[in-house]
C-alpha cells in the first residue's frame, strides 16, 4: 500500500475484511477491520463493519462497545438522532447491567435521560426475563447506581420526579425520517386509544404512525399485535404495508436476517400495486445485503433499478457494489 494514502489503505483493508466476512471467517475479518481502524479511528464505515463482524461471531458485548464508540462520534458531529440510534442499538444487541448503566449515564450527561428511559421501556419486552427486574431497578435509580457524573444528577433528579416514560413525549420527526412504507406522505394520526379496540386496521394505522416517527420498537410491537388479530378487515395492500414496515423496523433495530421473512411474505401476496412491490423488493435487497448475501441483494437492486433508476438510493448502492 502506498505511503501517505491512509484513506486508500483503509478501503483496501475493508475490502479484504469483507471477503473474509462473506466466507464466514469472522475472526480473520475482525483482525483486518481492526487494522483498518488503526489507520482511521473515527471511520464510521470501519466501525460499522466491526459491529457486523462481532455480531456474526456472537461477540455481542464487543459489538455494543463499538456501537457506543459510534454514538460518541455522531454526538461530536452534532448528529444527535444518529448518536441516540447507535446507543439504543447497543442496548438492544447486548442487554445487561453494564451496557444499560453506560447507556443511561451517557444519556444523562447529554441531557437526554428522559428520552433514554422511554427507549428502555420500549425495549424492555425484548430483554431476557431474568434481566427485566434489574433493568427496572436501574431505571428507578435514574441510572446512577451511585456512579453517575456530577453534572448529570440535576437532570436525573428532575427526570424522575415522575416516571420519565410518562413525562416523555415523542419529538417531532427528525429531518430525513423515512416515509411510511405505503409511500403516501406522512402517516395519518392514529385514533385515540379508546377508539382503537381490537380493530386490525386501526392498530395498523397506529403502527405506521409510530414507524414514521422512528419509534421502531413500539411500531414493531404494534405490528406484531396486528399479526395476531383477525385479518378480515385488512386488504392485500394493508398486509403489504404491515410486512414492509415490519421488515424495515427489524433492519433499523439491527436484525437484518430477521427482516428477510416479512419482506418475502409481503412479496408472496397477490395483486400488489407497483409502489408496494418496489418497496418490498428494495427492503428485501437491503436485508439480504446487510445479512451478507450480497449476490442476491445485487440482483434485487438491479430489478428495482430497471423499474425506476431514481428509486431511493438504488443507483448509489449498485455503483458502490461495483467498487467492492
Describe this structure in words.
The protein is mostly helical. It has three domains: 1-58, Serine Threonine Protein Phosphatase 5, Tetratricopeptide repeat; 71-169; 193-323, Serine Threonine Protein Phosphatase 5, Tetratricopeptide repeat (Alpha Horseshoe), CATH 1.25.40.10. The protein has 18 helices and no strands. The longest helix is centred in the first third of the chain and has 17 residues, at 6-22. The protein is globular.
Q: How many E-type strands? A: 0
* Head-to-tail CA distance between termini: 17 Å
Number of domains: 3
Count of alpha/pi helices: 18
The CATH architecture of the largest domain: Alpha Horseshoe
Q: Assign an overall shape.
A: globular
Please identify the structural class as seen in this structure.
Answer: mainly alpha
Largest sheet: none
Share of residues in strands: under 5%
Order of helices and strands: HHHHHHHHHHHHHHHHHH
What's the CATH H-level homologous superfamily of the largest domain?
Tetratricopeptide repeat domain
CATH topology group of the largest domain: Serine Threonine Protein Phosphatase 5, Tetratricopeptide repeat
Helix content: 55-70%
Summary keywords:
324 residues; mainly alpha; Serine Threonine Protein Phosphatase 5, Tetratricopeptide repeat; 3 domains
